[in-house]
Amino acid sequence: MSTASNATRFTALFDNSILSRLERLRLNSLRRLTVRSRGEHQTGKGGTSTEFADYRDYVPGDDVKNVDWNIFSRLNRPYIKLYRHEEEMHVVLLIDASTSMQFEGKLQLAKQLAGACGLMGLMNSERVSVYACHHLGKSPELLPPCTGRVSLRRLFRFIEEIQAGGDTPLEAAVDVLLRQHRGRGVVVLLSDFLTLGDINPALNSLFSAGLEIHAVQILSEPELHPELTGDIRLVDSETGETLDISGAAELFNIYQDQLAWQEMQLTADCQKRSGRFMRVSTSTPLDSILFDAFRRKGWIR
Amino acid sequence: MIWPFVAPAAAWLALLFVPLILLYFLKLKRPVQSIPSLALWRQVMNDQRVNSPFQRFKRNFLLLLQILVLACLVLAAMQPYWGTGALRSKYLPILIDCSASMGALDKPGGTSRLEVAKAEAKKIIDNLLSDQLVSLIIVNSTGRRLTDFTNNKRLLSNALDHVAVSDVPSRLDDSLRLAQALSRTYPIERALFLTDGNTPSNVDLELPFQVTLQLIPPGGANIGITELNARRGAERWDVFVRLEGAKVGGGAAKVEFYQDAELLGTEQVSLDPQESQRLSFRASAERPSQISVRILPDGFDSLASDNVAYLELPILRPLRAYVDPELADFRKALQPLKGVEVLPTPGSTKPKLVTGYDLVVTEAVGETVPQAAVSLTVGQVPPELSKLVKVEKDFVKVVDWQRNSAFLRHVQLADVQMSENPVSAVGIEDRDYEQHAYEILAHAARGPLILHKDRDGRQAFWLLFHTSRSTLPYRVGFPILVSNLMQIAMQQAGLAEVRSQATGVLPPRAADPTMTYTIVSPDGLRQEITTTNEGLLSGISAPRVGKYEILKGLSTVTKTSASLLTASETSLQAVENIQFREISIGANETRLKTDKPLWAEFAIAGMLFLVLEWWYFQRRPGGW
pLDDT tens digit string along B533-555? Predict the structure, then answer.
């Protein structure tokens, strides 16, 4: 629901109210997958930030300026103070912009979620890059890594201008992404995951590249609860291939089983690689996804 | 190979499968639905094939149902039948025994044999194939065709419903001749005869088709009256009754004798199976009366129609014999006989009556000659035979005569000579006399000497020679011949012995000429019969045991009765086979197997498949 006119909205992706709420949130990665360059992402002990993390015994060679002299005076033994690292995390947004995503506002939701994740990354001084995959074998649209609040408008404009079309499967898009991307961090996969290929090699590649997988499967309501009856001919929007089915109604249960099995399989595949998976419906309001589902699942904090 | 189809040509309808399948796939214009990706649906289809080996079959379930519907309709059109190998004839006459024994019950309150036979016939009619035609013929003392050859089940069932038991013995000749006549028009291969087996075991008939004798199990125990007659006694009638027990069981019963409404007496009898017992009693002869004998069985008696019998007793009177005064030898021979009144008495001045005689012996011909039921004409040639035979003056002897004839019984004619020689015309043979309804009782060398004609209940004997010109009156055989003539007249007049009238057709009786009489049967049915010019009331059908009333207008002329009185019907005995002229037909008690048509089942199956297809097409998504 829009509360501000288009003229006053910062971006066409979502309202300013959502924007303001997102500014106070950040992506919560499970692992320390950050780049060594300084940033605002505190990932662990031994850093150079001002936030105390722990003590350890002094060993020769340690910088004596880190010795806690107060403890030394009381215990007569030197201890080194450890501080949290403030490192820069790379947020990679991979948007599946193939033809299959143009159904029932799936691409729009993907763009909104990408914008939200990008916003959170930029507002937390993390490097954000965006890949939009269209055609198989062609280079994806790329927003090079950018940081800082100043890149917000550039990020939103890039995302807003993404158009659906093409036939690239997700696994192929991941290969293209990894050929161009450098750095560890979080990859947010925004796709319908309706691919005929095997997604596991792509997930392995992402995991090996040091990217924590956050996979969001975006499905429309007709895909979740198809209402097909009788004898129909299904046409693949990307490949144009057809499939004749008879008695579609009686396949309903099998379809539901297949859908549930796919969700379970994708969840397991992501968890095996220390990642996360979530299925969202285009019929679910955006704020519910962001501020309810994401937060409850610990994707953002 | 015989296909179990009545109309195998309808198999050509199976060609409709081709357009059905073609139209199905041409018509199957699937609506196109564009979806993001086929990935999930391909997995669904794979899953479906793995999970259900019948999915390929289910994919075109509608087509399968349509094929099944068409297959059922084609099969129904081919009219299949469940062949039993028995009774497969296109034209099938069904003969149903309706004689008295078919009214026997199998147990107290049980079903009659006819009902069982009708149920068998009904089953055959119900299972009639469309190319089979059935004609129903009932068999009792005669045969009657109820329906022409038809496969109209309603018509056949209606005709079958009206079949009822007649209280008459069964005779196969007429009904089989009827079927034989039908075989000249229709190619009959086999006839079915439904009977309890209580039929004559010999039929002098040659059948051009096979007969399947289907036996209905006979009835239970039975006692019945098989004979009832009376003989002339001394001023009374001696009445004799014969009771017989059935083959399977006799029993005990009380027998009551009535003369009109008066109970003459009762008697208790007990009969073993196939045992008979003769009872007698005396009845008054002072007035015409009706004797009725009733059996009151102590236990179960399967046949009721033989439990009562009637006998009409006339008043006892002398035989009225008119003998020409010129025939002195006949008068002398008749006068000594008891119970005979010879008229005219010598010296009588009364005018000669034309009617009212029981016997007439005359030597004259013409309308002035008195009429009687029995007549003997001496020395004359019957007028209608005048061209066949001439009487010449010549001595002649008897060459041969019929010794078993009632008229010539115990009469010796070997030495008799006569001076009148009847000579047949050239080329005239015995059959020419028979064509004029004359039977030759005695032959001379060149022609007949004694003729007999039995017509319309009247017995006429002709001596073509005059006894006064022969040695016959001087032979021992002459008084015997006269006595035989008297006995015949006595029998004809009912003065010597009276027998109960059997059911079937009542004997002719004298009445007013060309007058219509109404006969009311015991069950209230009326039939109208017009008498002949000679005043003979004949052809009265009497299929029921009981009293018959003859009405002239609204007034009762006389009453008569009919009784079953057939030992074979009372015995309920079943023949094991029927001997025809050339072949013997064995009886079969096992239930007759008939081909069962299956087209109705296939039509119903087709209808069910059609309903299933409609439901499958219309059912809600996700219903399975």
Answer: 878 888 888 999 999 999 998 88
Of A192, A237, A243, the CB nearest to B42: A243
Number of other residues whose CB lies within 10 A of the CB of residue B383: 9
d(CA B386, CA B393): 16
Say which residue the tokens 């068998």 belong to.
Answer: B120
B234 phi, psi to nearest 5 deg = -80, 95
Q: Are A254 and B34 inside 8 Å of each other by CB? A: no
ipTM score: 0.76
Q: Which two tokens stand for residue B315?
A: 């008043």
B51 at A interface, C-beta within 8 A: yes
The alpha helices in B112-188, defined as continuous H runs, are 113-126, 153-161, 173-185
Question: Between chain A and chain B, how many beta carbons pairs sit less than 8 Å apart?
Answer: 105
| Share above pLDDT 90 across residues of chain B, in percent, rounded to a whole number | 38
Q: Categorize the per-residue pLDDT at B575 as very low, low, confident or very high, splitting at 50, 70 and 90.
A: confident
CA distance B305 to B310: 12
**Cβ contact B37–A194 (<8 Å):** yes
Percent of chain B at pLDDT > 70 equals 92
Q: Say whether residue B56 is in contact with chain A using an 8 A CB cutoff.
A: no
Is A122 within 8 Å of A152 (Cβ atoms)?
Answer: yes
Which of 84-143 (A) contact B at CB < 8 A? Answer: 99-101, 103, 106
- CB burial of B502-529 (b: ≥16 within 10 Å; e: otherwise) equals bbbbbebbebeeeeebbbbbbeeeeeeb
CB of A206 closer than 8 Å to CB of A191: no
Q: For residue B31, what is the nearest residue in chain A, using CA coordinates?
A: A232
Q: Is A253 on the interface with B (CB under 8 A)?
A: yes
Using the Cβ of A257 and the Cβ atoms of chain B, whether some distance falls under 8 Å is answered with: yes
Cis check: omega of the bond before B108, within 30 degrees of 0: no
Measured distance CA(A49)–CA(B406) in Å, rounded: 159
